[in-house]
């Protein structure tokens, strides 16, 4: 008995000598605890471009570009899941944490260009968040490391003002070090071209001012300043987009929803049909019969890309036949995730001239914008020329009419950036959106509701935010700039 | 690789009527797992499952898990004349998975049992045996490895890109501790023919290591935290009886009853005030634990109501957009009853199980009823109307009301706003059946789809007959049996007992189109050699 005990004790002791340093074995050697700023930048750009936008699905419903004929997906009539809000909120804050990490590392390593890119993407995403929800955590956001799990919400105005400053800071960082050029790589937007980043910063600022101007007319000189300075996105290569061309391993994962159930929205289809827009075959599939003939043809024999009015009940939707569907070819490399296009800038310029914010000939940016948008969607040069020659497309001499023409083109240009199309509607109230009889609201929605978990996990600050909203946490509360 | 070493020294002493057993022990456990998963999306030559045959670069993901624990313990068992038993243990553990300052933890326990019948020399027909017991114990536990440091997540889409984890690691984790108190007795009456075993317990878990959902604006979806204090208390009763006992006839009954209440005292004060136990169906249904409340409260949108009655708008049930408390997921109590009856060579046994209370959101119910496939949606359809010219089914009275304008529909049982007076009056407006049932039971109408999980179940039944021994066998028995035979419940899906298991963890409060539990019936023959 005693001897067995001694033997087992000795076995144990021999094992003990092979024992380990606790801290060392509790560190996973297969995973990284430290990385460089460039590795973060690639992921942040990718996330900013794709995940946060939910691949355009909801945006395209909300922007009335799409509807859905199935009973399962009813988001065109504002029947959202809590997860639709989470998709935006959770993902963007996850990315903002990465951006904070990127900025900290860039500061430590004196990489001004990476810091500037971080600031620009930070401003882009937080503007997007407040546009979607209204007040959101901003000054106390991403402080989980300091155990702040209940950040306070800041107002939309506060966030807008602070983001304008962020973009200025970013611009200055890039301007003082023009040779910086992202030496460590990792930039799938512009391959490290500082000038293009500066143009993105200015274009984002222009987009913000155009939204702010109604609530705060004092930004008019800033709009004029940006346009006159001319450092804005002005070519297809400068368009900020994730292009799924295989570089950085970027393969498109874009989905267009359940085949057969997604149809064009009437709001969008009607606008395209009015001028027989040459982008139609690139944006949608025509509803055809078994012999491949279009189901719907107008009086002159032109095929009709038929859409369904948004927010209607299934009985009405079922009464439509031969609907046009989003173009299936968008699944491939032809559906980049666009954050900011050249055409958008051009239409802002035309609008600013027509509104009298700045002097110039509105027709020039208007036409450049249409040209840029058509080319982006793959329309042939000759077809673009013919389209621009169409009388209905030519910019009217009557200013109010002309402004509406610009807004219409801006709306078309926001296809696949559906949320931006809807945000633009909130900004200018045009084109007219359809209030469907089966919509859960009696008006066009003004915001997304907060993710349902916030009521539980950040109750006090959630309540403060709800009190700021004019109609509480529902779809109709308006924002600061869209009142 | 797993190494486990135990060293145990024990000694026995006798001091008069007291017998003592002492044990000293030491345990060492070391686990080391190394893995590499290699994945190819496509093969160059079809059918050749070799990683060298991968088209493009195969995806390689290494994995590693290493942990080490030491434990030192001592225990003493004291026994006085086989009448009083006292066990005392003490243990200290050291673990690699907690930070150096908190990686050692000590926990004792003490248990006392008294055979009162012997000790007090009780000799009664009524009370044949009485054992009293009480114990107090503390248990400490650690966590999984690698939960203290931040590890970057490899991008799923991009080569060489990384992002931050969505769970906040915690470099200051402490060991979990559970303190529990238990008292109970085992009493036998009437010469052991009626036995009652009762246990009352209370346990408090402090510093429980939980991955708690937090506001994602913090940069994290969840945070690993030591959460305050969660208590459980409960009663377990077991009654066994032999009401009839004779050579040719016997009847045994065994019944049990149990109830448990979990309550959150505090979570992480000032940091996290609500723990989300579950969030289902696109975050429409949320199950929470809140300080001062019982665990497992279901929240979700409900019907818009006026003085407890559903408000109908244009004949459709209105939904309020507030988060309403809709019940608790955990049952009030459970009970079971087992009967064994023997008559000559026949044996009959059967078991009933019962559960009182508890609630769950039923996906089956919403799927069946908002699409009009459930039985409760037959009322108000044109095909079943008693007046072919036009009629509306009045839910309140359960009768068809004829109308002249040829409409068919359902008049909901509730109130509606009278535009003229501005007051709520009984609802008189009908809606066509598809729209009526859609509004009543759509997936967002959480209240309309949450139901009590009370049930009574005939778990099994077995009728056996002893065959005479033959061919040199010692015995044989043939039996007819059935399992999961009958279920009585108002729960609208097949079986309220079946919980949904999601990612290996139980999701209380959700029924997600579960299949019915299988009823099995059969005959078996047992031969004993």
How would you summarize this macromolecular structure in one to three sentences?
Chain A is mainly alpha-helical and 483 residues long. Helices cover 48% and strands 4% of the residues of chain A. The longest helix of chain A has 27 residues, at 82-108.
Number of helices of chain B: 4
Question: Roughly how many Å apart are the termini of chain A?
Answer: 88 Å
Structural class of chain B: mainly beta
Which two chains touch over the largest interface? A-B, 75 and 65 residues
Rg over alpha carbons of chain A: 26 Å
- How many DSSP H or I helices of chain A? 19
What structural class do you assign from the helix and strand content of chain A? Answer: mainly alpha
Total strands of chain A = 8
The major beta sheet of chain B can be summarized as: 16 strands, mixed
Labels describing this entry:
heterodimer; A: 483 residues; mainly alpha; two-stranded antiparallel ribbon; two-stranded antiparallel sheet; 4% strand; globular; B: 529 residues; mainly beta; 16-stranded mixed β-sheet; five-stranded mixed β-sheet; 57% strand
Account of the protein in words:
- The complex is a heterodimer of chains A (483) and B (529).
- With 483 residues, chain A is mainly alpha-helical.
- In chain A, 48% of the residues lie in helices and 4% in strands.
- Chain A is built from 19 helices and 8 strands.
- A two-stranded antiparallel sheet of chain A has the order 1-5. Chain A has a two-stranded antiparallel ribbon with strand order 2-3.
- In chain A, helix 13 packs antiparallel against helix 16 and helix 14 packs antiparallel against helix 15.
- The N and C termini of chain A lie far apart (88 Å).
- By secondary structure, chain B is mainly beta.
- Chain B is 5% helix and 57% strand.
- Chain B contains 4 helices and 36 strands.
- Chain B has a 16-stranded mixed β-sheet that branches. In chain B, strands 17, 18, 19, 27 and 28 form a 5-stranded mixed β-sheet that branches.
- The longest helix of chain B is centred in the last third of the chain and has 9 residues.
- Classes of the chains: A mainly alpha (483), B mainly beta (529).
- The interface between A and B is large, with 75 and 65 residues.
């Amino acid at each position: 008995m005693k001897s067995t005990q001694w033997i087992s004790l000795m076995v144990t002791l021999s094992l003990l000598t092979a024992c380990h340093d606790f801290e060392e074995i509790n560190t996973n050697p297969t995973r990284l605890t430290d990385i460089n700023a460039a590795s973060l930048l690639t992921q942040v750009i990718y996330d900013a471009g794709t995940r946060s936008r939910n691949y355009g699905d909801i945006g395209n419903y909300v922007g009335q570009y799409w509807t859905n004929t199935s009973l399962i997906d009813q988001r065109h009539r504002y029947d959202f899941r809590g997860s639709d809000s989470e998709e935006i909120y959770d993902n963007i804050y996850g990315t903002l944490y990465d951006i904070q990490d990127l900025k900290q590392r860039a500061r430590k390593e004196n990489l001004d260009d990476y810091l500037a890119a971080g600031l620009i993407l930070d401003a882009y995403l937080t503007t997007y968040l407040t546009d979607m929800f209204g007040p959101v955590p901003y000054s106390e956001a991403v402080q989980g490391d300091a155990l702040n799990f209940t950040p306070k919400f800041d107002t939309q105005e506060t966030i807008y003002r602070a983001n304008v400053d962020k973009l200025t800071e970013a611009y200055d960082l890039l301007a003082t070090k023009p040779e910086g050029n992202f030496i460590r790589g990792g930039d799938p937007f512009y391959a490290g071209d500082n000038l293009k980043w500066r143009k993105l910063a200015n274009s984002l600022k222009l987009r913000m001012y155009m939204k702010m101007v109604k609530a705060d007319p004092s930004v008019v000189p800033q709009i004029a300043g940006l346009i006159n300075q001319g450092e804005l996105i002005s070519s297809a290569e400068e368009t900020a987009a994730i292009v799924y061309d295989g570089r950085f391993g970027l393969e498109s994962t874009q989905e267009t929803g359940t085949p057969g159930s997604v149809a064009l929205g009437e709001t969008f289809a009607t606008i395209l049909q009015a001028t027989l827009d040459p982008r139609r075959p690139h944006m949608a599939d025509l509803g055809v019969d078994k012999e491949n003939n279009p189901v719907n043809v107008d009086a002159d024999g032109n095929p009709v890309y038929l859409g369904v009015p948004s927010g209607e009940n299934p009985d009405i939707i079922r009464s439509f036949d031969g609907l046009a569907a989003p173009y299936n070819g968008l699944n491939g490399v032809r559906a980049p995730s666009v954050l900011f296009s050249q055409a958008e800038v051009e239409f802002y310029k035309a609008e600013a001239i027509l509104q009298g914010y700045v002097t110039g000939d509105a027709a020039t940016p208007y036409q450049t914008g249409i040209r840029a948008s058509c080319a982006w969607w793959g329309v042939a040069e000759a077809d673009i020329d013919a389209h621009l020659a169409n009388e209905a497309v030519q910019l009217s001499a009557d200013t109010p009419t002309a402004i509406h023409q610009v807004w219409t083109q801006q709306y078309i240009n926001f296809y696949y950036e559906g949320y931006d199309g809807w945000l633009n509607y909130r900004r200018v109230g045009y084109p007219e959106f359809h209030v469907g009889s089966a919509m859960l609201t009696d008006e066009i929605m003004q915001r997304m509701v907060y993710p349902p978990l916030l009521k539980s996990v950040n109750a006090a600050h959630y309540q403060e935010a709800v009190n700021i909203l004019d109609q509480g946490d529902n779809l109709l509360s308006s924002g600061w700039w869209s009142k | 690789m797993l190494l486990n070493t135990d060293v145990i020294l024990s000694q026995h002493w006798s001091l008069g009527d007291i017998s003592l057993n002492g044990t000293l022990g030491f345990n060492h456990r070391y686990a080391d797992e190394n893995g590499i998963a290699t994945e190819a999306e496509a093969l160059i030559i079809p059918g050749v499952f070799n990683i060298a045959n991968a088209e493009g670069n195969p995806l390689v993901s290494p994995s590693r898990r290493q942990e080490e624990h030491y434990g030192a313990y001592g225990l003493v068992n004291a026994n006085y004349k086989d009448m009083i038993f006292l066990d005392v243990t003490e243990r200290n553990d050291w673990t690699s998975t907690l930070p150096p300052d908190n990686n050692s933890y000590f926990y004792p326990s003490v248990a006392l049992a008294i055979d009162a019948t012997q000790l007090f020399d009780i000799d009664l027909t009524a009370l044949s045996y009485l054992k009293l017991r009480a114990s107090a114990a503390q248990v400490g536990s650690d966590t999984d490895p690698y939960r203290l440091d931040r590890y970057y997540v490899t991008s799923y889409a991009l080569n060489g890109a990384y992002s931050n984890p969505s769970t906040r690691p915690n470099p200051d984790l402490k060991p979990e501790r559970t303190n529990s108190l238990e008292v109970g007795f085992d009493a036998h009456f009437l010469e052991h023919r009626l036995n009652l075993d009762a246990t009352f317990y209370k346990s408090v878990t402090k510093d429980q290591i939980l991955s708690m959902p937090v506001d994602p604006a913090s940069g994290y979806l969840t945070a690993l935290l030591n959460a305050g204090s969660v208590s459980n208390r409960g009663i377990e009763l077991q009654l066994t009886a032999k009401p009839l006992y004779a050579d040719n006839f016997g009847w045994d009954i065994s019944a049990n009853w149990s109830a448990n209440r979990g309550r959150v005292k505090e979570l992480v004060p000032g940091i996290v005030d609500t723990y989300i136990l579950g969030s289902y169906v696109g975050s429409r249904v949320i199950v929470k634990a809140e300080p001062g409340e019982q665990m497992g409260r279901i929240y979700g949108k409900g019907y818009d109501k006026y003085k407890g009655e559903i408000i109908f708008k244009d004949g459709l049930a209105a939904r309020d957009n507030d988060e309403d408390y809709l019940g608790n997921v955990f049952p009030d109590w459970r009970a079971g009853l087992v009967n064994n009856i023997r008559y000559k060579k026949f044996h009959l046994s059967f078991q009933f199980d019962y559960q009182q209370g508890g609630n769950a959101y039923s996906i089956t119910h919403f799927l069946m009823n908002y699409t009009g496939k459930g039985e409760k949606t037959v009322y108000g359809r044109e095909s079943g109307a008693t007046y072919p010219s036009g009629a509306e089914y009045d839910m309140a009275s359960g009768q068809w009301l004829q109308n002249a304008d040829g409409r068919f529909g359902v008049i909901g049982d509730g109130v509606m706003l009278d535009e003229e007076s501005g007051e709520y009056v009984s609802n008189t407006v009908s809606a066509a059946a598809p729209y009526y049932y859609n509004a009543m039971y759509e997936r967002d109408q959480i209240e309309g789809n949450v139901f009590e999980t009370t049930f009574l179940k005939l778990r099994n039944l077995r009728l056996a007959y002893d065959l005479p021994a033959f061919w040199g066998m010692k015995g044989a028995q043939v039996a007819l049996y059935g399992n999961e035979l009958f279920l009585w419940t108002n729960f609208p899906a097949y079986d309220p007992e079946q919980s949904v298991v999601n990612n290996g963890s139980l999701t209380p409060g959700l029924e997600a189109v579960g299949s019915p539990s299988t009823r099995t019936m059969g005959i078996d023959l047992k031969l004993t050699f």
